[in-house]
Amino acid sequence: MRIALWIVQSLLALAFLAAGVMKATQPLAELATQMTWIESFPAWAVRAIGVAEFAGALGLLLPSITRIKPVLTPVAAAALAALMVGAAGTHVVLAEPAMAAPSVVLGSLAAFVAWGRFVKEPIVERGTDG
């Protein structure tokens, strides 16, 4: 289970890091050619989503790797799962149900990491027994 969690955490971190950097830095007109939902949101919301994904990606790995406040890893995973629920809902509302599938997959994997790191295989903070 420990290895599976590390693999999923790492893959999710890469996915959210790439998505977050793209949404936070690329021109909105360019993003809109790749993602139709961009036109339905204000620019600040698109950028905020990108920053949230970027921060979540860091939160999936850094606290666990450093063992400094590792409880932040499942918190980040839970936040990313919630973000993906919103993303899937947005695609459904915009009549793009097929586009909701990646959000559902990413959200499910993030929920798995949250459960795994909260319950099944929590990482112990540096300097504590356990």
**Helical region count?**
5
Give a count of the beta strands, DSSP E runs of length 2 or more: 0
Structural shape = elongated
Distance between the termini: 18 Å
Oligomer: single chain
Q: Low-confidence segments, ≥5 residues, pLDDT <50?
A: none
Q: Give a short account of the largest sheet.
A: none
Overall pLDDT level? 94
- Please compute the radius of gyration using only Cα atoms: 16 Å
Fraction in beta strands: under 5%
Indicate the structural class.
Answer: mainly alpha
H-E order? HHHHH
Helix content percent band: over 70%
Description:
The mean pLDDT is 94. The protein is elongated. α1 runs antiparallel to α3 (43-66). It is built from five helices and no strands. The longest helix has 24 residues, at 2-25. The chain has a domain at 2-20 and 55-120. It is mainly alpha-helical and 130 residues long.
Topology:
Blueprint: H1 2-25, H2 28-34, H3 43-66, H4 72-93, H5 100-120
Describe, in short, the structure shown.
The chain contains five helices and no strands.
List keywords for this structure.
single chain; mainly alpha; 0% strand; elongated
